[in-house]
């Protein structure tokens, strides 16, 4: 147990460590006595560099270091020099006798209390050791306040004071400071001793390991001053630099300084593989606040590569994957912060303790949020990285007085350089008397939260042991965790208590996980099993023992090495590395590794035939149980990204990569980890890592055992389902009416069909029509607590990827029972329309369809005589790698059964679709289509897709051959131009009509359900205003009357974001007053909810014989007969929309992966000739904030209509004089000529190198 509780600081930085031994002066903590010695270890270069760079990561309060702070830093360095000197002078590295340090309780100690605490630097501690005992603390320390500990240094050892002025050991100061802060068996870190490195999160296996700054309540001097009414100018000492002794020219600081002089100004954007990480949703720590004087003018506001790529990918996913029934803006799944909200600011990379701030305002032009912190500093962060907020914490009246002292959006965008110059000479902070009321409120909140933590410290520090399951992944929310840990009802939990619990869970490291894309909205947590946490701890222990063994054997003679016996953990790692090296060498005989995060294609080509697949797999079992654990550890790092935000664990997998000796020219980052897993055969050489997303939680991803068990039980249910139709007595027989099911030939399930019949002749002689939209009706056969419903709720939607489909409901249920077919049940949404497309009447009824005709869009286009429309201007381009595509299997098609009467009905439906489109356009609806390419994959001739597969962890899996990949695209077409597909608007408009009928029907009856609409984003121009002032004049000048793409994208942003509610509200993007999705209950859980609610209402109306139509609101009526109450639905909605957005991103990522796989094999290995020459065109779609970045620019490769990243031009290459003058090398709407620089499979992106600017529009 003691070994498990050791701190892993030694893994990241080796240097000086405090250890318990059998020699030296006793170390007293409470009533325990342990000798304290100092042992010196060999420090790797990276460790020393990490320690050196630690101090700059510590953020100083109030923006400007005080003279005392500068002097303090010098004294801290001097003490570290002393310790290193003493170790250098001691042959055994121990401090014994009177020179030892001791921790002891009490006598003469200055007590630490809640109201006041002594704060001493290590040097002050040293100077006070002559006959007195004092206590030191910092805000980054943590300890239990009920146990008073002190540090005593015996002044009899003259070496401490004599070494004060010696400079020759100063280069080791950072390492010594770091190692003094460690706490582990064999090493003791006084929890109140200040260090130069931000504390890192401890493992969650110990009830003490989670304890951090919440065990103290020290009030910083700046906070105390903020409560006073007076302010003073900067003291003259502010500009005085304390004298420091000359540094060692051979020390680590000098070496790093020389390296910086040589390499520090290299052009980072041209680094091939450092283009960002889409998994890092937070994108790193906060932006500079400008008072810290960044060297680069843009460094305060530009996005990091991870931030930029993540923003662009998410935005484009919403465009390219949005359902045609619901065009969406790119800002879906966002809850906007408002002035006065209290937010938590996290420092994930430096692991500085989190702090609180108040949201001030939004800087839209830079995509940043302006905050004011508890320390009295203004900062700018991306709103998306805020994971915790308390809405309306203070009124705007308390925040508005700060505005005149904060930089405005105009200053940040245009006057940044001037502001930076002012920051060197002036204090840009808000006057303290102005900020005092706000700061005091935040300080008080912080104190109250720490009081809660102090009171419940033992429970909160042991949260994982109390909440986690032994073997299974669990889910929870912040509120549920708080009620369990604090034993307080949810309604009685004060906000500081919730915040304290959040800090405890956040500080627990690997034990808890949250989806950083949606946690602020949902509060949901994943509670990892104790078994999984133990696995990680075991591997960390093995790696530590292996590192120790490497250090020990490095100094042994050959004879000593022969007799040396490594510890068990070290043996596991040595054996694993030997096996991995042997496997990789064999693997490279067939496949070449690349820097793009993927192995190359196999040298063996296997054609697809009816008798064989194009892939042949052989396996060799060479791994034991310990090897399997190490493989899982590498998977967690490189595939599932389980260690993001945990630097201590992130430092370990690269050590294994480096130790193989086979990746010398690669960066030791997750993409290289995946490359290693591909080479040893754990994952396939063409593995789509999207399915391993820890938050996507696909049933086959092996993240959750209960989920796997549920999937197994559903498969076994196929022979014993016991379905019963709850609507049998209410079904309408649609008889011989033709029902047209229009979908692609490869559709997995058919869940909608259309029919039309004449209604009447209007008084003015115009015709009216009844349009019926028949939808599959699974909800009539099982209730909301059925296992099928439970799986549907977890999945949220069916997830379609080119290689596999992850069904929301098992295929046996949809294909055998619920998919529309002759004789199958349905729920029909009917609307009576006039010849203008206006809805005059609507109704909903259960039924049964009999005459079902399955057609493809091409069949319908041919039948209506529109097959050739739209194809001439944008011909379809087909690219294929891997061999010949297997011929399509012939399916039964109803095109030959179409009668002239049916063709006329299709034409009527098409005409009414056009009229409905006009109605929505008149109501302000927006129309766009990204015309995304289609991509398919084949392994066998039977069907598209790949065989089901799981990671192989028993040894080497050798994969010969590669799948066939085919992409079809028409290139980039203006998203806002009329659709070239004449049939798609027909289907889209009819589906939207059904959604409008469902919402209107429920609204009339005050039935709560899942409805969708749009909400305005604060600070954005109103859509109507944008239309009149910007869009309309531009469209009037266009010969075709089309909306230019760059203007349309700006117009779409003004509509705000899509939101969910239990009652209908206006959807501006669609131009509809009522909208609720109902057309896909076989693949969307939200649609199932509406079906359940509607069917319950239909049964109630049939039972009572009365209509439920009412003028009262949902809150005023009794709806206990419904399966979902409004309160339950509100809870479901919280998680449903983030889940839908996650699935949308996953589908987009999957398509991008296979398209980049195709281009990777074509461009890097010449498997097929690309139809364009050496250059391509790139259309810039990035916003202004992304364009300010020097890391590349989001764009679309126009020939293929796929996502790409364009590197910055070198030296202004390809730019005109005017372009150079405005300071922006890329703008929204630009068209650039580029060369393909590389195809990055791990990032799923094509990297372009610009040649010259071809076109620039006036934005």
From TrEMBL:
Q: Name one GO molecular function term.
A: 3'-5'-RNA exonuclease activity
- List membrane-spanning regions: none
Q: What is this protein called?
A: RNB domain-containing protein
Region annotation (Disordered) maps to: 24-76, 172-250, 265-332
What GO cellular component entries does it have?
P-body
Domain RNB, by residue range, is 731-1100
Q: Which GO terms describe its biological process?
A: mRNA catabolic process
- Can you name the source organism? Friedmanniomyces endolithicus
- In which residue ranges is the amino acid composition biased (Polar residues)? 24-40, 174-186, 320-331
């Amino acid at each position: 147990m003691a070994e498990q509780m050791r701190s892993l600081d030694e893994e990241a930085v080796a240097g000086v460590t405090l250890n318990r031994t059998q020699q030296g002066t006793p170390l007293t903590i409470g009533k325990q006595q342990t000798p304290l010695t100092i042992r010196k270890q060999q420090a790797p270069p990276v460790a020393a560099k990490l320690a050196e760079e630690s101090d700059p990561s510590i953020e100083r309060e109030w923006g400007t270091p005080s003279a005392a702070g500068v002097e303090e830093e010098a004294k801290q360095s001097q003490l570290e020099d002393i310790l290193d000197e003493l170790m250098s002078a001691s042959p055994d590295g121990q401090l014994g006798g009177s020179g030892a340090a001791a921790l002891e309780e009490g006598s003469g100690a200055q007590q630490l209390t809640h109201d006041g605490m002594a704060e001493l630097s290590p040097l002050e501690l040293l100077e006070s050791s002559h006959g007195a005992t004092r206590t030191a603390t910092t805000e980054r320390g943590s300890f239990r306040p009920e146990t008073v500990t002190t540090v005593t240094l015996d002044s009899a050892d003259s070496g401490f004071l004599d070494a004060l002025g010696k400079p020759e050991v100063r280069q080791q100061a950072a390492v010594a400071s770091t190692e003094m802060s460690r706490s582990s068996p064999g090493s003791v870190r006084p929890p109140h001793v200040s260090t130069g490195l931000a504390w890192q999160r401890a493992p969650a296996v110990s009830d003490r390991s989670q304890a951090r700054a919440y065990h103290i309540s020290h009030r910083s001097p700046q906070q105390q001053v903020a409560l006073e009414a007076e302010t003073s100018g900067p003291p003259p000492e502010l500009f005085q630099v304390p004298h420091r002794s000359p540094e060692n020219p051979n020390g680590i600081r000098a070496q790093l300084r020389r390296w910086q002089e040589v390499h520090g100004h290299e052009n980072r954007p041209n680094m091939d593989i450092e283009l960002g990480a889409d998994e890092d949703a937070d994108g790193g720590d906060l932006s500079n606040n400008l008072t810290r004087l960044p060297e680069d003018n843009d460094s305060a506001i530009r996005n990091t590569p991870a931030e930029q790529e993540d923003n662009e990918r998410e935005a484009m996913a919403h465009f390219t994957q949005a359902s045609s029934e619901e065009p969406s803006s790119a800002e879906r799944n966002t809850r906007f912060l408002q002035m006065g909200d209290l937010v938590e600011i996290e420092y994930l990379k430096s692991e500085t303790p989190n702090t609180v701030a108040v949201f001030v305002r939004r800087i839209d032009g830079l995509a940043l949020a302006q905050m004011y912190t508890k320390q009295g500093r203004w900062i700018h962060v991306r709103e998306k990285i805020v994971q915790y907020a308390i809405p309306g914490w203070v009124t705007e009246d308390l925040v508005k007085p700060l505005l005149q002292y904060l930089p405005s959006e105009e200053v940040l965008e245009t006057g940044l350089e001037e502001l930076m110059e002012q920051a060197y000479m002036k204090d840009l902070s808000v006057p303290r008397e102005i900020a005092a009321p706000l700061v005091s409120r935040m300080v008080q909140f912080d104190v109250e939260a720490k009081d809660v933590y102090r009171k419940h410290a033992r429970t909160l520090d042991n949260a994982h042991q109390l909440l986690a399951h032994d073997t299974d992944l669990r889910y929870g929310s912040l509120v549920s965790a708080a009620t369990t840990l604090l034993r307080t009802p949810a309604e009685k939990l004060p906000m500081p208590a919730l915040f304290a619990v959040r800090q405890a869970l956040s500080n627990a490291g690997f034990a808890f996980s949250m989806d950083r894309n949606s946690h602020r909205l949902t509060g949901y947590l994943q509670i990892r099993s104790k078994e999984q946490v133990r696995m990680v701890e075991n591997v960390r222990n093995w790696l530590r023992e292996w590192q120790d063994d490497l250090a020990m054997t490095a100094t042994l003679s050959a004879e000593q090495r022969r007799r040396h016996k490594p510890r068990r953990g070290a043996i596991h790692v040595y054996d694993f590395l030997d096996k991995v090296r042997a496997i990789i060498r064999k693997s490279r005989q067939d496949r070449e590794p690349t820097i793009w995060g993927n192995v190359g294609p196999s040298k063996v080509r296997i054609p697809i035939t009816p008798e064989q697949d194009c892939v042949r797999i052989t396996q060799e079992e060479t791994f034991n149980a310990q090897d399997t654990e190490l493989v899982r550890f590498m998977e967690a790092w490189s595939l599932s990204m389980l260690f993001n935000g945990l630097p201590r664990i992130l430092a370990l997998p690269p050590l294994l990569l480096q130790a193989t000796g086979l990746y010398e020219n690669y960066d030791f980052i997750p993409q290289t980890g995946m490359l290693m897993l591909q080479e040893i055969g754990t994952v396939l050489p063409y593995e789509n890592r999207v399915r391993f997303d820890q938050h996507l939680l696909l049933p086959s991803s092996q993240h959750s055992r209960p989920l796997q068990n549920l999937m197994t039980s559903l498969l076994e249910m196929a022979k014993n389902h016991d379905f019963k139709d709850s609507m049998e007595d209410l079904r309408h027989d649609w008889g011989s009416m033709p029902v047209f099911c229009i979908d692609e030939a490869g559709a997995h399930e058919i869940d909608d069909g259309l029919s039309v019949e004449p209604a009447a002749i209007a008084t003015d002689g115009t015709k009216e029509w009844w349009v019926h939209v028949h939808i599959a009706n699974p909800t009539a056969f099982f209730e909301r607590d059925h296992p099928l419903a439970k799986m549907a709720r977890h999945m949220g939607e069916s997830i379609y990827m080119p290689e596999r489909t992850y069904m929301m409901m098992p295929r046996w249920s949809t294909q055998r029972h619920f998919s529309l077919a002759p004789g199958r049940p349905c729920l029909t949404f009917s609307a009576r329309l006039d010849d203008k497309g206006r809805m005059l009447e609507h109704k909903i009824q259960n039924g049964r369809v009999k005459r079902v005709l399955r057609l493809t869009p091409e069949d319908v286009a041919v039948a209506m005589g529109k097959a050739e429309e739209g194809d001439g201007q944008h011909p379809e381009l087909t690219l294929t790698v891997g061999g010949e595509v297997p011929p399509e299997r012939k399916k039964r098609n109803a095109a030959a059964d179409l009668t002239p009467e049916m063709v006329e009905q299709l034409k009527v439906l098409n005409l009414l679709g056009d009229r409905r489109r006009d109605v929505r356009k008149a109501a302000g609806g927006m129309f766009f289509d990204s015309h995304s390419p289609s991509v398919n994959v084949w392994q066998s001739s039977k069907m598209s897709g790949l065989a089901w597969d799981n990671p192989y962890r028993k040894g080497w899996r050798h994969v010969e051959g590669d799948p066939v990949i085919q992409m079809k695209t028409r290139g980039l077409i203006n998203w806002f131009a009329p659709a070239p597909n004449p049939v798609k608007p027909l289907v889209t408009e009819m589906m939207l009509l059904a959604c409008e009928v469902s919402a209107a029907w429920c609204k009339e009856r005050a039935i709560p359900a899942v409805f969708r609409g749009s909400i305005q984003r604060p600070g954005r121009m109103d859509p109507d205003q944008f239309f009149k002032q910007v869009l309309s004049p531009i469209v009037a000048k266009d010969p075709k009357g089309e909306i230019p793409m760059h203007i349309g994208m700006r117009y779409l942003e003004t509509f705000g974001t899509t939101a969910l509610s239990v009652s209908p509200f206006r959807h501006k993007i669609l131009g509809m007053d009522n909208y609720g999705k109902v057309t896909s209950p076989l693949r969307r859980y939200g649609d199932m909810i509406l079906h359940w609610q509607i069917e319950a209402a239909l049964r109630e109306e049939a039972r009572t014989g009365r209509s439920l139509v009412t003028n009262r609101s949902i809150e005023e009526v009794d709806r206990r007969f419904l399966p979902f109450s409004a309160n339950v639905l509100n809870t479901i909605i919280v998680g449903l929309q983030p889940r839908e957005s996650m699935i949308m991103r996953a589908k987009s990522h999957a398509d991008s992966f296979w398209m980049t796989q195709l281009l990777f094999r074509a461009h890097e290995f010449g498997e097929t000739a690309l139809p364009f020459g050496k250059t391509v065109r790139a259309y810039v779609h990035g916003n202004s904030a992304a364009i300010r970045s020097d890391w590349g620019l989001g764009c679309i490769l126009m020939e293929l209509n796929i996502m790409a990243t364009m590197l910055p031009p070198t030296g202004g290459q390809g730019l005109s004089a005017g372009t150079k003058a405005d300071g922006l090398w890329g703008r929204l709407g630009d068209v650039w000529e580029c060369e393909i620089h590389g195809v990055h499979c791990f990032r799923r992106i094509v990297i372009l190198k610009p040649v010259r600017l071809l076109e620039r529009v006036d934005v």
